[in-house]
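ARCHIVE CARD
Drawer: 12
Card no.: 0347
Subject: one protein chain, sequence and derived structure
Cross-reference: see card 0346
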Amino acid sequence: MDNKLSDFEREFRGLFHGVMKWDALARLWSVVDPGAGWYLYAIGEAPPAQPAGAGEVREFIKQLDELLRREHRETYCGIVYADHLERPTFIKIFDPNHLGVSCGSSKNPPLPGWTMSLVRPTELKRFGPLPESRRRWWRALFDVA
């Protein structure tokens, strides 16, 4: 184990379970406690210094769910992963428009588009810039200039 990794990086590299069906994604969202102190992180933006408020978490889940269902035009989900499906503490959400090989079978699997975690994130370096459309979506969600 690499002792130089942050708690966030250790958890990020841990075991995750895929959310394969859309109804399973709805169940996952239903067990997320919005007031638990979630850090919402868009990879490519600065990691948050403080956890989001419950209202922000609810709005993030709502908007993200709509985006995933609209842009991942498949009969299955398969782009959301959680450390625990019944009591998640870390969730990775892959951007449906920038998937690459998200299953981890490549040497350099893509990073998720977003993470939700109960541990404060440290910066993850993207391979290339955050697409401007996603930057606008993220900033509009939290009313950031």
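Annotation on reverse: The radius of gyration is 14 Å. The beta strands are 17-19, 39-42, 80-82, 90-93, 114-117.
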